[in-house]
Amino acid sequence: MRFPFALSAKIAGHIIKHKVRRTPRFAMVLQLEPLHTCNLTCTGCGRIREYSTSLKDMVPLERCLAAAAECDAPMVSVCGGEPLIYPKIEELVNGLLEQGRIVYICTNGVFMRKKMREYMAANFSSALEPQLKQLVAEQLVTEKEAEAIRNADAAAKGKSVIAPSKWHYWNVHVDGLEFTHDLIVEREGVFKECVAAIQMAKILGYQTATNTTVYRETDVQELEDMFQFLSSLNVDGHTISPGYDYDAAKKDMVKRLGKKPEDFFLTRKMTVAKFAKIEEWGRLFTIFGTPVYQEFLAGKRDLTCTAWAIPTYNVKGWKAPCYLMTDGHYDGYQQMLDTVNWEKYGVVGGVARDPRCDNCMVHCGYDPSGALGTNYQSGDNWKNFKYNFGAKPKPCAATAELQQRAFNGFSIGKGHLAEAKAAINSPAANARGAFSNNGHDHETHVGSHCGGGDSTERDTLLAKIAEARPAQPE
Ligand code: SF4
Ligand code: SF4
Fold first, then answer.
1. Which of 153, 347, 453, 471, by CA, is between 20 and 30 Å from 219?
2. Which helix or strand (DSSP H or E) is residue 208 part of?
3. According to CATH, what is the number of the domain 5-389?
């Protein structure tokens, strides 16, 4: 099956239950942000900036668990910031699993191997020795780390850990192949670390997923290469979503200076062009989401935003109207559902009810619409059922050529980051500094997953990357 039966059945059961009860609005996925602190400062990350005054604030464990229970979403995406920095991440994940939820940890991957070593130390017995040997042989764990795992003390043995489970996924943020990804996260070696973490997770029996945001300058061929490479690693699923692109400064330029929107925005038209092959990718790779949402992305149909189905809870409360825009925070999920005028948002019949929604086709606004039967067309249910319960695409072969295409930056000794920073920040490039984290003058701009990005800066950066992209191996 494309996705594990128990998980698909749980989600289908949740939808059917609410349809039978005629619940007008209900949660499908909770985006839980226990903190906004992060170990990285990705170019233009909206999350670490929008909540820059609350970086040290954290949602207490009990409140996180209560929020999940309150909205009763079958899936919880623990994001942030970097959730693996949250001091009680293990207790949070295990608490959510005890509540019977499917848990995604949306991580930048940097601390994943540490967390998995802790799991091994807490559970080490001779049964784990073959995996440990394999991890050492594949240089995913050092000899010294392996010894520490074998000789774990009582404290390590008694530690709460994140163990492999069919109800849990590591969901790793990957925005391209090595060269692009490391530039975006502004640190060389992060792509390599993500790959190592995914490999280690697969050896230990964890489920893995990736999430990718597509921007105006994202190279579609690179996305295909990335999916092939991730498929060769046996990654279990992928979320892919267009970046959110509302920016008051850019709007103003269109209005005042008569510039073309496509010079600035990932417009709906451009999103549709980028996602022209999404249905084919859905057949070839384990792309999460419904075929109905894929048809929407490919420009074949309209959907109405159902942002209330993917609510966000963070230090300030329930964030409305959606993961991307903030018009207010509420104390309770039901209070938010009852108070927000949902008719003010989204795009209906090609007309944006709120100008900020104009170019939005993001997964957290529209993917649930595909599952919930909004704008239902005959055959949709069967299509969704066939996709989720159908055969899993075969993994791509892990060839040396594919490896070479994936590792096209730092790991082949290019050390490209300093060079790229200099190029992008040079006066000649007339850039304010795509890598600079200062001087943010935009209004609202976050992409999806783990903060995502401010597309103005990412677009500048990615345009430079496109110029500097190394030649692909023959
Ligand atoms: S995009 Fe994610 S990994 Fe990057 S700085 Fe923001 S929260 Fe951290
Ligand atoms: S259309 Fe997009 S930006 Fe507007 S409310 Fe829905 S998810 Fe948010």
1. 347
2. strand 207-214
3. 3.20.20.70
